[in-house]
Structure formats: structure tokens, C-alpha cells
């Protein structure tokens, strides 16, 4: 799963938040339709004190796919939100 479309960015204008959220939703759904579910539902894995997954080798294929999708959507959001 890779994407090359430029994502929308949020410019910190509260008046434009609804518009920005709608554009981000559309972008994320176009990349992969299940990514927005990950944003709304979140993911849960057993992690250590540094936030690293304890045992990635023991997760099932479905969990592995969700883990990868989580990192895709995380990357999109990190790039889109100003820091």
C-alpha cells in the first residue's frame, strides 16, 4: 500500500476546521477505505514502557494488516498537522 497524492493540510484556522476535516476524510478514504475506521476506533497492542510493540512476531495476519494501516494513516496525519 503506497500513495503518492499530496494530502491536504490543516492551517490552524478554527473557522476552516470543518472543511479541513472533510478534505482529510476524503483523502484518507481514497488512499484506503478502512483507514478512517482506524482513526475513529483506534488500535490497541501490548506495548512496553517506550511505546514499542512487545511481540510483533506473534500477532495474527489480520492484526499485522491493521498495524500497517495504522502507520499509513499516522504518517498522513503527522504530515498534515502543523507542528
Structural notes for this entry:
This protein is mainly alpha-helical and 83 residues long. The chain is 51% helix and 0% strand. It is elongated and about 45 Å long. The chain starts with 16 loop residues before the first helix and ends with a helix.
- What's the shape? elongated
What would the average pLDDT be, to the nearest integer?
81
Strand content: under 5%
Order of helices and strands: HHH
* Record field, number of beta strands: 0
Q: Give the oligomer, counting copies of the same chain as homo and different chains as hetero.
A: single chain
The helix/strand class is mainly alpha
Summarize the structure.
With 83 residues, the chain is mainly alpha-helical.
Topology record:
Layout: H1 17-31, H2 35-41, H3 61-80
Helix pairs in contact: 2-3
Looking at this protein, list some descriptive labels.
83 residues, mainly alpha, 3 helices
Amino acid at each position: 500500500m503506497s500513495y503518492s497524492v499530496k494530502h491536504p493540510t490543516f492551517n490552524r484556522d478554527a473557522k476552516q476546521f470543518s472543511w479541513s476535516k472533510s478534505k482529510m476524510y476524503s483523502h484518507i478514504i481514497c488512499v484506503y477505505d478502512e483507514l478512517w475506521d482506524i482513526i475513529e476506533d483506534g488500535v490497541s497492542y501490548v506495548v512496553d514502557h517506550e511505546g514499542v510493540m512487545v511481540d510483533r512476531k506473534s500477532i495474527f495476519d489480520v492484526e499485522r494488516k491493521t498495524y500497517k494501516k495504522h502507520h499509513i494513516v499516522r504518517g498522513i496525519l503527522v504530515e498534515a498537522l502543523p507542528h
